[in-house]
Amino acid sequence: MRTENNLHLQMIESKALAWLRVVSRELGKNKITGYLVGGFLRDTLLGRAAGDIDIAVKGNALLIGKKLVGALSGKFVLLDAGNKIGRLIFPEAPDLYIDISSFSRDIESDLARRDFTINAMAADLKYFRGRKIALPLLDPYQGALDLDRGIIRAVTGKSLTADPVRLLRAARFATELGFKIEPKTRQQIRKKAALLADVPGERVREELLKLLTASRGGQALQYLEELGILTVIFPELAASRGITQPAEHHWDVFQHSLQTVSAVDYLLGCGKWDYDRLGILSEVPWTDEIAARFEQPIAAGSSRRALLKLAALLHDVSKPQTKTVEPSGKMRFLGHHETGARLTGEILSRLRFSVKEINLVTNVVKYHLRPNQMGELPSRRAVYRFYRDAGEAALDILYFSLADHLATRGPGLILPNWRLHAATVRHIMEESRRQQAAVKPRRLVDGNDLIKSFGLKPGPRLGKILRRVQEAQATGELTNRRAALNYIRKQLAEGKK
To answer: DSSP string covering 389-431, please?
Structure first.
């Protein structure tokens, strides 16, 4: 355990250390007091990769930040004029930036307003001008000790209610760091969880995405449930507690949804599955290209992987209202995928997700049953139409279907059935690649051909015919221009529009 209250400079990445030394010198020249604070300090002490650098200064942070631009060869961006918060960004290091804020009275008062003890430490920047390699920490709330113990603890009794998004942030830190929330703070969170309902959607979105970006997503969401937070953020999920499903399902709808999130992490190589068995992952198609695809950013703060976990959480959100039981005892959830997609769109709009994010998640929900409905070896036409309808979400849906399978069976997984499902997914992916290769070199006909050869006019009808030709080309029915023209001539003769 590290018990000394020191910051060792060799723990800081060289580029960041060089910037901090420049900032220290510039502040010294202008007789300005400044401190290194926040997440950078916390992560450095933990030996983790640190991103943004947080600096608190005595004075107007906006004016001071603009003065630092020249010395650091950076660019200044205004973040919050009212609270005097700005950011220094650097073209040569886009993943590392400096946030600069003001404190009015003294640094101790500033630290007292922070959320958790592990974030309420400071290092005086004046020490970066000297030759010391171990700098003293200002740590009035024993944050370093809590780092050693692996504890998330609120700075004061009012810390959480001062900014209710901190209720969610506590769970996020616990998940990211593998820490535990200490009992008193945990009790406060449960007592005040309802306050999250009044937090602006964009702030909840930001914390939620950070939580989902971490591994063990299902475990993190289960933690939110234990804290009474999950259904404050997603009240639509509350009705799914205790909703039973057909015999092949191991869990009720609510727990199945959480388990599906864990299964997504497991399949994408970012988490554990409590029911891991030899041969499960070896059946799943996987390449470096696929792995990179799931890390693609979709919007600020979100990736395909994080959004797929969000879709996993919400994919059965409308099962409670669509459930029916026939006289024979058979359960049905007719149309839950379509109803669920609409409801998911409303939820994500409330949380201020972007249109692109909403489209991706709702398409996963809308088409999540499609892979299982296509049969063991889907036809070329079925594969083409699946990719056509699902669009950018097609690959996400295929991997989701595998996660859904795991989270349906759980410990009762039947390996031959799993292998068949994985083989079907592989077949769909390979057939789609063949189809894309078939249409990439050139189109057999275009709009001008239809206008010149058949006297058609530009409009919806022409577009429909071209799409049918492209489908026939992708599925191997048409391989040359003459065949395509004959195909169109026959369709027109049969009166197809």
So the answer is: HHGGGHHHHHHHHHHHHHHHHGGG--HHHHHHHHHHHHHHHHH
Last residue of a domain, one of 439, 456, 476: 439
Q: What is the DSSP letter of 477?
A: S
CATH number at residue 91: 3.30.460.10
Domain boundary among 96, 129, 149: 149
In one-letter notation, the amino acid at residue 491 is Q
- Maximum CA extent, the chain: 88
pLDDT of residue 1: 39
Query: Per the domain annotation, does 1 fall within a domain?
Result: no
Residue 429: its pLDDT value, please? 95
pLDDT at 441 over 60: no
**Residue 480 gets which letter from DSSP?**
S
Alpha helix segments (H runs only) across 32-94: 38-46, 61-72
* Distant-in-sequence, close-in-space partners of 149: CB < 8 Å, separation ≥ 6: none
> Which domain covers residue 52, as residue numbers?
6-149
List, for residues 324-353, the tens digit of each pLDDT value: 999 998 999 999 999 999 999 999 999 999
HSE-CB at 394 with a 13 A cutoff on CA atoms is 19
Tokens of 60: 């107007």
Q: How far is CA 38 from CA 20, 115, 121, in A?
A: 14, 10, 7
Task: Let me know whether 215 and 259 are in one domain.
Answer: no
Q: How far apart are CA 63 and CA 389, in angstroms?
A: 52
For 220, list phi and psi in degrees, rounded to 5.
-65, -45
Nearest by Cα to 164 from 90, 104, 229, 256 = 229
Burial 297-336 (b: 16+ CB within 10 A, else e): ebbebbbbbbbbbbbbbbbbbbbbebbeeeeeeeeebeeb
100: in domain: yes
Contact 233, 208 (CB under 8 A): yes
Q: Encoding tokens for residue 113?
A: 């307003």
pTM: 0.85
